[in-house]
Design goal:
The strands form 4 sheets. This protein has a 4-stranded antiparallel sheet, with no helix packed on it. It is mainly β and about 140 residues long. The chain has one helix at about 65-70; strands at about 5, 25-30, 35, 40-45, 50, 55-60, 75, 80, 90-95, 100, 105-115. It has a single domain (about 5-115), classed as Deoxyuridine 5'-Triphosphate Nucleotidohydrolase, Chain A (Distorted Sandwich), CATH 2.70.40.10. It is about 5% helix and about 35% strand.
C-alpha cells in the first residue's frame, strides 16, 4: 500500500520499519527537535510529518516498549483519521522521577496503519454468549 506523506519540516524523517515490513507491524516515528520531558507531565513532541490516509484506513500512534521499560516514558495512544492533514505529534508522558531528554532524531513512537469499517448502531437486546457480562477479573489470574 502506498500512502502520501509530506515533510512539513526539513529535518523530518519518514516513518520506517526497524526490521523490515515482513517482521514489524509498526513504523518508527522520529522527533524533529530536542524536548525535555519533566516528571509527571505530558508534552506533544513534533515529528514534522503529515500523511494522507485513504478512506477506510486509520493510523494509530503507539508507545515503543523499550522506552517504558528502560526510561519510564510512555506515549498516549492516538488515532489519525483519514481526513486529518496536520502534523503528527506524539503525546509523551514521563512516569519517572527525573527529566528525560528526547533528542532530535530519537525514535519516539510507532505508527500502525489499519483498515477500519464505519458502523451504524442498531439498538435492541443482545444475544447470549458464554462470557455474558463477566468483566474485570472474571477470567481469573
Amino acid at each position: 500500500m502506498k500512502i502520501r506523506i509530506k515533510k512539513i519540516h526539513p529535518d523530518a524523517i519518514a516513518p520506517a520499519y526497524a526490521h523490515g515490513s515482513n517482521e514489524d507491524a509498526g513504523l518508527d516515528l522520529t522527533a524533529i527537535e530536542r524536548t525535555v520531558l519533566t516528571p509527571g507531565k505530558s508534552q506533544a513532541v513534533p515529528t514534522g510529518l503529515a500523511i494522507e490516509l485513504p478512506p477506510g484506513y486509520e493510523a494509530q500512534v503507539r508507545p515503543r516498549s523499550g522506552m517504558a521499560l528502560k526510561h519510564s516514558i510512555t506515549v498516549n495512544f492516538g488515532t489519525i483519521d483519514p481526513g486529518y492533514r496536520g502534523e503528527i505529534r506524539v503525546v509523551m508522558f514521563n512516569l519517572g522521577r527525573a527529566d528525560y531528554v528526547v533528542e532530535k532524531g530519537d525514535r519516539i513512537a510507532q505508527l500502525i496503519v489499519a483498515r477500519y469499517e464505519a458502523i451504524e448502531w442498531e439498538e435492541g437486546e443482545l444475544g447470549e454468549s458464554r462470557r455474558g457480562d463477566g468483566g474485570f477479573g472474571s477470567s481469573g489470574r
